[in-house]
Write a structure and sequence with these properties.
This protein is mainly beta and about 180 residues long. The chain folds into two domains: about 100 residues, Jelly Rolls; about 70 residues, Sandwich (Jelly Rolls). It is built from no helices and 18 strands. Strands 2-3-4-11-6-9 form a six-stranded antiparallel sheet, with no helix packed on it. Strands 1-16-13-18-12 form a five-stranded antiparallel sheet, with no helix packed on it. Strand 7 and strand 8 form a beta hairpin. The radius of gyration is 16 Å and the shape is globular. The model has no long low-confidence stretch (mean pLDDT about 90).
């Protein structure tokens, strides 16, 4: 099983069309022009609506900053990841200045995605699916099949066609496992 890794610090920020922030795209998989999964770290710099992505399920979490009001949610860095219909242009209001956020988008027609907190995942978890990934906000160690990979803060590690071998994560702070398969829910 071969893992790839990228840190938000290694990606040049891209300004949003509406001027409200910038994004560091960590992964658009399997191809940037035709993705099933898109994972990024974004800096929200001013109030405004989220962009609408029809047919997409979104997951969102505040990683740094005072937080945001996103539709009916008030989200802070210590809160759980939320999921919502990406086709909605939800209004977003900054609570106390700019924030850094985790964004995960999945095209529902392209398969099934499961997302869970690394803290709630049992030791020696066996990922199943065609693609598995781990995002960590503060860094740590990814353990897979008897090997270890050190991850910097704001990093994504992923593997296509993972072997059936135990995986776990050692670290503090927000971290999420993601598994994708072609199967429809």
């Amino acid at each position: 099983m071969s893992w790839s890794c990228i840190s938000a610090d290694d990606v040049a920020p891209q300004a949003w069309r509406n001027g409200g922030g910038q994004t560091r795209e960590l992964l658009a998989w399997p191809h940037p022009a035709d993705w099933a999964l898109r994972i990024s770290v974004a800096d929200i710099e001013r109030d405004g609506p989220f962009s609408a992505f029809d047919g997409v399920q979104r997951w969102f979490a505040v990683l740094q900053g005072e937080g945001v009001r996103l539709a009916d949610w008030e989200l802070r860095a210590s809160d759980d990841l939320i999921s919502f219909d990406g086709g909605l242009a939800l209004p977003c209001e900054l609570i106390g200045g700019s924030t850094r956020d985790f964004n995960l988008m999945h095209r529902r027609s392209r398969g099934q995605l499961q997302v869970k907190s690394a803290a709630s995942t049992p030791a020696n978890w066996l990922p199943q699916g065609r693609w598995v990934g781990l995002f960590t906000a503060t860094g740590g160690r990814l353990l897979h099949g008897g090997r270890a990979m050190n991850l910097a803060a704001m990093s994504l590690a992923w593997c296509e066609h993972p072997a059936a071998q135990p995986c776990s994560f050692e670290g503090q702070g927000a971290a999420w496992w993601m598994t994708w398969s072609e199967q429809q829910p």
